[in-house]
Amino acid sequence: MQHLKIYTKEDVLSHTKIRRFETKLGERLQIIRNPKDLEESLQNTLARYVIIGVPEDIGVRANQGIGGADTAWQSFLDAFLNCQSNDFLGGEEIILLGHFDFSAVAELIEASAQSFDEKVDAYRHAVNMIDDEVEQLVHIITQNRKLPVVIGGGHNNAYPCIKGAAKGWHKSGVIPFAQINAINLDAHADYRPMEGRHSGNAFRYAEEDGYLEKYFAIGLHENYLQQNVWMDMVNNPFIDCITFEDIFIHEKRDFTQALKDATEFTDDTLCGIELDLDCIANTLSCDMSPVGVSAIQARQYVNYIVLDTQPAYLHICEGATNLMNGRNDASTGKLISYLVSDFIKGMQQVY
Ligand SMILES: N=CN[C@@H](CCC(=O)O)C(=O)O
């Protein structure tokens, strides 16, 4: 994992504003004690949740999308580390492990690719390297029975999350086969064909490679569902979905019923929890939209799914604070921070 940067206490405190008479999460959460031996550090901590950043937009660019998914991580840290440590969330139960830095790879591609097609090919090739490193880290975390909280990055990282978690939870003895389920709140199915890795085909690759058993997508926007993908999904008994239109426009099922259907469909084994921020209306993300669920509904999604499933990991992706088309919004990190704290608080209610 040559691109992984493991954080020190100083790294954490550099994002934490210390204030008298109060304690912030950044003062309480844990770091990896011995970066030279990640496994040993994970084995010797009572912390249960391991947060990692994958601030890259290589997968999005490989999908011909708008870059910028590499910009949300730092603003997430600024928000999350300055949350109050209190009875609702103390912080000791969390390890902030660090982040991957693939920026040199993206710079090299930008500088050397000669044409649009060459660039797309190079980005798709680079996603394989990201897949390998993210998978390896998720594998190590889960085989030590810790829960990865992965902040992206493009939705390409669902593939290494699923693969790494399936292998790791299997190795730990928690599941009998290296195969898990996934629930995804998203405007897009990300089940595009296997044309080279990118942010739009993580679930297809995970299924074809045998690491994803069942997949439930909630809130897909009909306008952005490719007909071939739709046909493949409806003809696959291991995949189910409900569109945004069926919930909010045609009102066939309400949001809570859709969440219940998702957890019932995937309740036979551990389940990856996926959230693409482009499904939240007006949230700065690679395929931002004026139409979508509210931030409160996204928080309800995380809380409901955690309480009603056996989580394998949490992955929040595609958020940005600065997009390559010039749009900015500094609040994305704070939104991610709410979602991460909802996940950990929810987990603590159950386990
Ligand atoms: N993860 C996002 N997937 C979408 C991207 C759409 C876009 O950026 O234009 C998809 O492949 O359809």
CATH superfamily: Ureohydrolase domain
Q: Please report the number of helical segments.
A: 14
Helix content: 40-55%
Kindly identify the CATH topology: Arginase, Chain A
Largest sheet, in brief, is:
9 strands, mixed
Which series of helices and strands comes N to C? EHHHEHHEHHEHEHEHEHHEHEH
CATH top level? Alpha Beta
Protein described:
The protein is α/β, with parallel strands linked by helices and 351 residues long. The chain has one domain (4-350): Arginase, Chain A (3-Layer(aba) Sandwich). It is 42% helix and 16% strand. It is built from 14 helices and 9 strands. It has helices spanning 9-13, 25-28, 38-43, 58-62, 72-80, 103-112, 116-143, 158-171, 202-208, 227-234, 244-249, 255-265, 295-308, 332-350, and strands at residues 4-6, 49-54, 94-100, 147-152, 180-185, 212-220, 239-243, 271-276, 311-317. The protein has a 9-stranded mixed beta sheet, sandwiched between helices. Strand 5 (180-185), helix 9 and strand 6 form a beta-alpha-beta unit. The mean pLDDT is 97. N-(iminomethyl)-L-glutamic acid binds at residues 63, 65, 155, 188, 190, 192, 199-200, 224, 276, 286-287, 318. Belongs to the arginase family. This is Formimidoylglutamase. One of its GO terms (molecular function) is formimidoylglutamase activity. InterPro entries: Ureohydrolase, Ureohydrolase_dom_sf.
